[in-house]
Design goal:
- The structure is a single chain.
- About 35% of the residues lie in helices and about 25% in strands.
- With about 250 residues, the chain is an alpha/beta fold.
- The chain has a single domain, classed as Rossmann fold.
- A six-stranded mixed sheet has the order 6-7-8-3-9-10, sandwiched between helices. Strands 2-1-4-5 form a four-stranded antiparallel sheet, covered by helices on one side.
- β4 and β5 form a beta hairpin.
- α4 packs across α5.
- The longest helix has 21 residues.
- The protein is globular.
- The two termini are about 40 Å apart.
- The relative contact order is 0.17.
- The structure holds adenosine-5'-triphosphate (ATP) and magnesium ion.
- The site of magnesium ion (MG) has 3 residues, from α1.
- Adenosine-5'-triphosphate binds next to β2 and α1.
């Protein structure tokens, strides 16, 4: 069996007496779009927080491409290739889209006092970063907005820029917490189409939390469903939609 991009075994996280995540396991194959769904408060964000270093899990194990990363700090996990977005994005509002993209790139040696006088040493890296940031903006069809201040752009552009930032940070696995929340339907399909292109052309792996199932389910390769801190179902879109427990949770029937 090929090695999974991400393997999560029995992760737990409680807040006082509340078991927000109560033993969740998950396996993400390389190059797929996996959806994590469940009602409000079911523990989706806490699960992601616990595997990406934002919170320390109370138990369980996390492996990225076979390497154990359980409890690592977020910056180390990010360097290892697993990058996540937040449910409430916090872009640099005063910077342009390009500025926000560039902020995710690795800095050149010019940041160091020692190297800063030697311009030739770091200008090449800076030029490379700008070229790569423009390439990402082009792939997201954001080139006509590249110099728009982030605070004046649409939610869809903010969400796309977050995905672009993950790419520029060198992500192999991107975890997105509600990437189309507050995004108009046309743009929402564009966001998911972009993920499909990245999966197919660059073999990137995505774990996506989303409530807007009418849109998200069209693009999912596999689905996990959480309720009250545990997984209640997993499988293909058809399998989970026909699952009795899932119907009960979503439709109360
Ligand atoms: N920092 C915290 N302190 C205490 N309780 C928390 C904390 N974060 C989350 N919770 C609780 O843990 C449970 C799971 O919350 P979580 O945000 O993970 O759910 P979710 O599935 O992401 O919900 P939503 O779909 O609304 O984003 C909820 O009961 C929530 O109130
Ligand atoms: Mg959440």
């Amino acid at each position: 069996m090929p090695e999974a991009m991400l393997e999560v075994c029995n992760v737990k996280k409680s807040f006082g007496g509340l078991k927000a995540v109560d033993g969740v396991s998950m396996s993400l194959p390389r190059g797929g779009i996996t959806l994590l769904i469940g009602p409000n408060g079911s523990g989706k964000t806490t699960f992601v927080n616990s595997i990406t270093g934002f919170l320390h899990p109370d138990g369980g194990h996390v492996y990225l491409e076979g390497k154990e990363i359980t409890g690592w700090p977020m910056y180390r996990i990010c360097k290892e290739g697993m990058v996540r977005s937040f449910q409430l994005p916090a872009p640099f509002g005063g910077l342009s889209i390009l500025g926000n993209l560039l902020a995710a790139c690795e800095c050149g040696p010019g940041e160091s006092l020692l190297w800063s006088p030697f311009k030739d040493m770091w200008r090449t890296k800076e030029r490379e970063n700008v070229r790569e940031a423009f390439a990402v903006a082009r792939a997201m069809e954001l080139t006509s907005y590249w110099d728009a201040p982030m605070a004046e752009t649409s939610t869809g552009h903010i969400k796309l820029t977050e995905i672009g930032r993950a790419l520029l940070a060198g992500a192999k696995l991107v975890i997105l917490d509600e990437p189309i929340c507050g995004v108009d339907p046309v743009m929402a399909d564009e966001v998911f189409s972009f993920l499909v292109r990245l999966r197919d052309e660059q073999d990137l792996t995505f774990l996506v939390i989303e409530h807007r199932l009418d849109i998200a389910l069209k693009y999912a390769d596999y689905v996990y469903v959480m309720n009250q801190g545990t997984l209640i179902a997993q499988g293909s879109v058809d399998e989970v939609l026909n699952n009795r427990q899932v119907k009960e949770v979503y439709l109360g029937s």
